[in-house]
Amino acid sequence: MKKYFIILIISIVAFTSCTKEQRRFKLTVEEASKQASEQAYVISPQLLADILYSGSELSSYKFIDLRNPSKFENGHIEGAINIPFRTMNKNNNCKTFISQDRVNIIYGESTEQAIFAGFFLQQLGIKNYFIILGNYDFIKNNIIEHYNIYSAQYNPEIAQYDYAKIVSETSGARNYSAKSKKPSSAVTFKRKKKAAAGGGCD
Amino acid sequence: MNKSSILLVVLLVIGAFGTFIIDTTQREPFDKVQPCDLIDIIAQTNKFVTTDELARKIMSDDPTLTIIDLRSKTEYDKYSLSGAINIPLENLSEEKYEDVLNQDVRTVIFYSNSSDLAVKAWMLTSRLTYKNIFILQGGLNRWVETILKPKPPKETALRTEFEMYSFRRAASSYFGGGSTVGETTIKKKVALPIKRKKKSAAGGGCD
Predict the structure, then answer these.
(1) How many CB pairs under 8 A join A and B?
(2) Is A134 contained in some domain?
(3) Within a domain: residue A200?
(4) Window 172-201 of A, Cβ < 8 Å to B
């Protein structure tokens, strides 16, 4: 009798806790936008290479592949499990993201997809995860197969060019400023009426 | 035994429903979109524009285009796409920007150095149910690689690639030429609405 009772309670709690976690954002939009520019949840290529090469710490990490099953079958990081991006919110997958026993390392088809997933988890208040910048091909070529000097500095958000300099280099002879077209249409201006200039005798 | 167990089960079921109902009524006012739906929205909507599409839009003077630069002010001052408005990602949710972002007719395009900040900003705005927002895929780094400094295709490449290349070269001379010169005048126009103090009427004349 008591056993039934306990089992029932446990199962109900387990069921609702997972859906609850999924049902609400922990961060408001303001809070999320304040934290958005931090890259705290991005795994550094050095650490990733350490984990992959040494293999000793592998048991405390779990790789999650967000690509489609067909791409997953063609090749993936050893030991990774496949959770396609669009099924992230399904109930049994959410348990994988919430579970605290391992640190999840998430990668996807593109950097964008990994960031979508990572920022989503961040807004839910889930903390035990990393994302890998770069798509699977990048990881395979630059980290798994041969780790090179460029792998360690990979961060697409850093400006790779001096934009203004390139513009002036490519400008050539055509230096007209006709391009200062009216972008002002984007914003509505609320200007107060200027009072007519006074003057003259009445 | 039997009766009490049935009673217990019934009570538990009612309790479970109760927690469910309480849960849904306690929804925070800021959650217009629930997490479950957000994943579907991300997976289903078309959210990227390529650098070529954006270049075409700017060159054809598309009047419905709003370009948003999500980087910091210092980076924006050094270089920005023509006509871009600077909204640093941290300030995205501020009220003064809502009129710019929350609309139906215009096409809003987010960009940063790569797609990172734009992806995050897109996610936040879709939580707020804003429409017609796109991400410049690859950001400014790809903008440089494809538009400002296009690489010629291989000789064996398809005809479409050569057409693309000639478009990009045209775009390169368009965007390369003069945009640094015209920059300052552009930026003044783009500044967000500033409430100006009334100018006192010029005095003069005879009283």
Answers:
(1) 242
(2) yes
(3) no
(4) 172, 174-192, 194-201
- b/e code B49-63 from CB counts within 10 Å (16+ = b): bebeebbebbeeeee
Could you read off the pLDDT tens digit of each residue along chain B, which spans 207 residues? 678 888 888 887 777 766 655 555 444 555 677 887 888 888 888 889 999 999 999 989 888 899 999 999 998 998 888 889 999 988 888 888 888 888 888 899 999 998 889 999 999 898 888 888 999 998 998 998 888 888 888 888 888 889 989 899 888 888 875 344 334 444 444 555 555 555 555 555 555
Q: Which of B36, B66, B195 sits opposite A89 (nearest CB)?
A: B36
A2 token code pair? 């008591």
Q: How many domains, chain A?
A: 1
Whether A149 is covered by a domain: the verdict is yes
CATH number at residue A126: 3.40.250.10
Domains of chain B by range and CATH? 39-145 (3.40.250.10)
Tell me B50's DSSP state: -
List, as ranges, residues 174-193 from B with C-beta within 8 Å of A: 174-182, 185-186, 189-193
Is the complex ipTM higher than 0.90?
no
- The Cα A78–Cα B23 span in angstroms is 40
Question: Which residues 134-173 in chain A show a CB within 8 A of chain B?
Answer: 156-161, 163-164, 166-172
In a domain? residue A174: no
Residue pair B165/A158 in contact by the 8 Å Cβ criterion: no
Q: Mark yes or no for CB contact A22/B176 under 8 Å.
A: no
CB contact under 8 A, A188 and B99: yes
Q: Which two tokens stand for residue A123?
A: 């807004």
